[in-house]
Amino acid sequence: MSEFVTRRSVLAGAGAGAALTTLPISMVTLAFGGEREDFTFTYISDAHIQQIKGASFVRNWDQGLKRAVAEANLVKPESDFVIFGGDLAQLGKREELDHGAEILSKLKGKLHAVMGEHDYYLDLGDYWSKLYGPHYYSFDHKGVHFIVLNSILTSEQWTFHRWPTAEQRMLEMAGLDNPNGSPFMVGDKQRKWLANDLAKLDKKTPIVVFSHSPLQKIYKGWNFWTDDAEDVQALLAPFDSVNVIYGHVHQIQYNQIGSISFNSVMATAWPWPYPQSYAQAESHLPVLTIPMNRADPFFERDATGWQLIDIGSGRVAARYQLWDNDQRTVAFDHKAGHPVDVAYQEPTQRRLPQTHY
Amino acid sequence: MLRSTLLLAFGLAAFAATTARADEFTKTDVERYQKEFEQVAAKGRELWTSGALGTNGVACAQCHPNAANTHPETYPKFQKQLGKVAQLFEMANWCIRNPLQGANLPPDDPRMTALVSYITFERRGVKLAPGQH
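^ Those are the sequences you sent over. The predicted structure of the assembly is below.
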């Protein structure tokens, strides 16, 4: 059901303003009062490459990542860079990281990677670092300051003193609903680094933060949660235009807290239910979020996919390339002051959610 | 002789049935039944999270944390993709065959009973809605 994706088709339904980015660079709208160009980057996340044995890997998750890479390579003009949002592996094994890296190596353009808990808790990110570099860092691109955080850290006690083996530590953290897991955090050291990194910047500089777990608290039972989210938000709050993009949740979520916009990205592996579908617990799904339709399990790629992200006026427009599901665009609405789902914001325009699969 | 013995035995059994009290159970019994159920449901969660049901190591919990989005309260129902009214175990088997790349469990396999016990336990308190779409 999903159409062949090109930049043109992606943007066709996305509103007239965005179509300008398909024009030659000399004609591109200059956002931010002519100081910076609009640009697009590609976001692929949560591949969960899972080894069965030897050179055999779970076909289903492999296919998701391969499809995302193939489609991202078809986008014209090419996006400026690619982000991989974490959880490349399922159990953090070298074989899984290598196999995932091999698939990602087919991507055109510069790749920046974010640490996910599935990449980390076997060897505390050692092998991942050999492939992708430091666990947290920042870079500038066309006037926007990008920050990559490792938000899946936890206490010393849990990490170093609770589990007899690294394999068990990984397995305990790999289960989303496992009460033996631990809430994620950015941690003191990294927050200090973040404060220093931000100190150099003008408050008008648009900021985009990439984290694996949400830097807002949604549902602790499934670790849709970062324990020191408020402390991180406090560091970001003084800036006029902050965007946090996170993976981990395998579903569309968006929110606004002060000047900080939050957008989630989809997984290429499998979709997760919204927390409120679990009858025994209360969740705090952002009020702005319009949940996407339930995935049809008979289409194995339903409700998985990847994103094209436009940065215009320093704010994020996330165009979700969803396979076998309705395409969605969540873009910042300057009048409303928060992200909105472009097609579904009006209750009368919403397609009734399917709940029956 | 044989016939009269049988008749006598039958007569005694009928007499006993009329005087015996209806099935009664004590607090201890109820506690035992509950514990039995909890053990089976716990076995179900173990299977749910272990990857032991298929051949590729994928676990049910990877897509369904806390068995969410399994909505056992809606079964039996017309399952569009199967083209018939199906029971929960049939859908569980579909998942075992496909994402888990495994083989069907018989409906009365203790492992299927454990899975269904766990799934329905996670959904306790939700109103039954068989056939609901």
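The CA atoms of residues 77 and 131 of chain B lie 4 Å apart. The two ends of chain B are 65 Å apart (CA to CA).

Shout if you want it in another format.
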